[in-house]
Specification:
Number of helices: 18
Main location: membrane
Membrane topology: Multi-pass membrane protein
Structural class: mainly alpha
Number of strands: 0
Keywords: Cell membrane, Membrane, Transmembrane, Transmembrane helix
Subcellular location: Cell membrane
Protein name: Lipopolysaccharide biosynthesis protein
Largest sheet: none
Shape: globular
């Protein structure tokens, strides 16, 4: 059984990586064209206006976690009838929340856009267009969550990959239309993105309703199940409000203190971060259903193994990808973009550092969601992360700090929060904190300290040219791989890697 699960995880991970590599290449190209076509100011406006709507929909993160947890749990131990009821209840809640977001957006959101954000007067009309399209896109995104959660719970990652590839191909088409259409570029971009969101929802709904007979929506009111889901959502709201705070909240703070150009710098940094994080997310998405199912079936030994693998190798994978970019951010951004907004380089470096901490946190978060015991975890984690925005505001308001200070605050608090997560979650799943420190924290700390030494020496000693750029990127990746293999991996992990490499070599020889 364990071997079957491992093979499924491996297959799903490979499918997701194929999807990710394709979407990454297209996204990098489209981001460049969109920035150059819209310009720094309009690109910043699009990012910050969309961020206002995202802040209003902070509950969606909690609903997404609840959808994934309850649908996956019922799939593992429930019946087709109980799965059908759970899916319909979850969908009913999402429809209700989508309508609530629309009301909040047209009242509180509109007031904030018109009276608080720093939007140039001549671009206010376009910003309102973006805002209205963002509200509709967010509503559709909320409604599509149960469909998405169902596909992932059934571990149909190939379908998830195909839909994502269709999505990115449509966005490639948007770039062409954006360049040739003779209208306001910001308005047309917002409308085209909305059209793609409509298409995505239709495809997710069509596939789920035809492929999974137990997941056809029928308006359902089950008071007991609704109560359980809302209790789950209630305890996760605190944490998801914190996530919205240190993403869109910081984005809005930067706008209030520095204007839309600084939002463009953050937007570019976040796009690179998203591409890099997808490498890690694909790995974790393939593991997450098994984490939940192993807890539901009380297979704690297998759950602990998955938690260690997901935590350690997610962090090391992000380190492998991030280190060359952190060293050579200036050169990479210049090659990628014709326009590099001020502060983009320092923002990118800091955001990549925070991404590695997020990769370490996610497996613990999925584990506590599997238990359903969220009260203490959410109160502690959410309360700690919620301090990021007020501390950043006070520093910007009274200490005259540069804009990158908000990301430094985020990193510092995230480190403290990770230790709190360990203390709370590990006892819930019958795992010793000592085992987590020994198998996860010690290995990644050693790799994190040792692997940058040689690339850093090359970076500071060699002149800034193409040769040094190639050397720094190569030695960064090579150092992480070598140090991970000999110091970050345990003996059985090295044996497994050797066997996989040997198998691949033999297959290549047989093909010849």
């Amino acid at each position: 059984m364990i071997q079957e699960h491992s093979q499924r995880i491996t297959r799903n991970t490979l499918i997701l990586y194929f999807r990710m590599i394709f979407t990454m290449l297209v996204s990098l190209y489209t981001s460049r064209v969109v920035l150059n076509t819209l310009g720094v100011e309009d690109f910043g406006i699009y990012n910050v206006v969309g961020g206002v709507v995202a802040m209003l929909s902070f509950i969606n993160g909690s609903l997404s976690a609840a959808s994934s947890r309850y649908i996956t749990y019922e799939l593992a131990i429930g019946t087709p009838e109980s799965l059908r009821k759970t899916f319909s209840c979850v969908m009913t809640i999402h429809i209700f929340i989508a309508l609530l977001i629309a009301i909040l957006g047209e009242t509180v959101g509109s007031w904030f856009l018109l009276h608080e954000l720093k939007i140039p007067e001549n671009r206010l009309n376009s910003a309102i267009w973006v805002f209205q399209c963002s509200i509709l896109s967010t509503m559709l995104s909320i409604i599509s969550v149960p469909y998405n959660a169902t596909i992932i719970a059934h571990e149909k990652m190939n379908v998830y990959a195909y839909i994502s590839i269709m999505d990115v191909m449509l966005k490639l088409g948007i770039v062409y239309l954006l360049v040739i259409l003779p209208f306001d570029k910001l308005k047309i971009y917002a409308l085209l993105i909305l059209a793609i969101q409509i298409f995505d929802v239709f495809v997710y709904r069509w596939y789920t309703s035809t492929r999974f007979k137990a997941c056809k929506f029928k308006f359902t009111w089950d008071q007991s199940l609704f109560k359980d889901i809302f209790i789950f959502v209630g305890w996760t709201i605190n944490g998801n409000l914190a996530v919205i705070g240190y993403t869109q909240g910081l984005n809005i703070l930067l706008n209030l203190f520095f204007g839309p150009a600084i939002n463009a710098a953050r937007g570019i940094a976040v796009q690179v971060q998203t591409v890099i994080q997808n490498f890690c997310n694909n790995f974790q998405v393939a593991l997450n259903p098994q984490l939940t199912k192993s807890y539901a079936q009380s297979d704690f030994e297998y759950m602990h193994k998955l938690l260690i693998i997901s935590s350690k190798f997610s962090f090391l994978l992000l380190l492998l990808l991030s280190m060359p970019i952190i060293f050579e951010a200036q050169t990479i951004l210049k090659l990628w973009l014709n326009i590099v907004p001020e502060y983009t380089v320092i923002f990118l470096r800091l955001i990549l550092c925070s991404s590695m901490l997020t990769a370490l946190a996610n497996p613990l978060i999925i584990s506590v969601h599997a238990t359903g015991k969220l009260k203490t975890f959410q109160l502690v984690e959410g309360s700690m992360l919620l301090t990021i925005v007020p501390i950043s505001y006070l520093l910007l308001k009274f200490c005259n700090v540069p804009p990158e200070a908000v990301f430094i605050v985020h990193i510092g608090i995230e480190i403290c929060t990770q230790f709190a997560r360990m203390k709370i979650v590990l006892p819930m799943i019958n795992m010793k904190i000592h085992d987590y420190i020994k198998n996860v924290l010690f290995p990644i700390t050693k790799v994190l300290i040792l692997s940058p030494i040689i690339p850093f020496i090359i970076y500071i000693c060699m002149p800034n040219n193409w040769y040094s750029f190639i050397m720094v990127c190569f030695t960064s990746a090579f150092s992480v791989l070598i140090v991970t293999y000999y110091i970050g991996c345990q003996k059985h992990e090295r044996i497994f890697i050797k066997q996989k490499i040997y198998t691949i070599i033999m297959k290549l020889k047989l093909k010849k």
